Write the structure tokens for this entry.
Amino acid sequence: MKVRRLLSTALDPLAPDDTVQTALARLLEQGVTHLPVVDEGGALVGMISEEQLMEAPDAEAPVRSFLGARPVSVHPDVHVFDATRAMVRHDLSALPLTEPASETGSSAAADRLEDATDAPERYVGVVRRHDLFDRFAQMLATQEPGAILALESTERDYSLGQLVHLIEQSDVKVRSVASEPAAAGTPRRVTVKLNTTDTTRVRHMLDHHGFDVVASFGEQDDEIFERVQEFMRYLEV
């Protein structure tokens, strides 16, 4: 999924001549800790942070005096994974999206992740951290019902294809899979979201084939379930 689908124009960018006081008020009003700075020609010329502004000795100083030489941005046609990597790397609450002024709409924009030169580019909007978080929540099916299993497997024996095949052999569907990179000599950690709360058969199958289920969440408690069923039968009588 391209990050342009999360593009927001709701944040008002700062102008280079806006004062520190104005910038702090804008940050507070818009609920972010970073704002892009855009010149009168529409080019992104920098990013300003709340921390920089709070440390400013003069509340009337223009924000241009705090800008670095190279603002961080990504093109709208990069994948959300790459946009997230840039946002995390630079610890941003809002990540600017830009396009080359001479290549607006060009497919060449998809090839660039972060600015490689100091040449300013046309500002088109931002993607906000919470919008990326919401997208990942949807991709991981966090709002869908079902149990979650946390697994471990040796890096040598790990196979996503085999894992999904084993689960689906148990007449269970995989809603999402998240895999954590394994450090040298440690097992790979995998989190699986299922479409059921009854994982008895799945757990047995995984354990038999070398996947260690180290934690589970949202599973059906068989004893409680049976008591509820008995109570419902009693009510029907």
Notes: Strands lie at 34-38, 43-49, 94-99, 121-128, 148-153, 174-180, 188-194, 212-217. The CA atoms of residues 20 and 55 lie 10 Å apart. The chain has two domains: 3-135, 140-223.
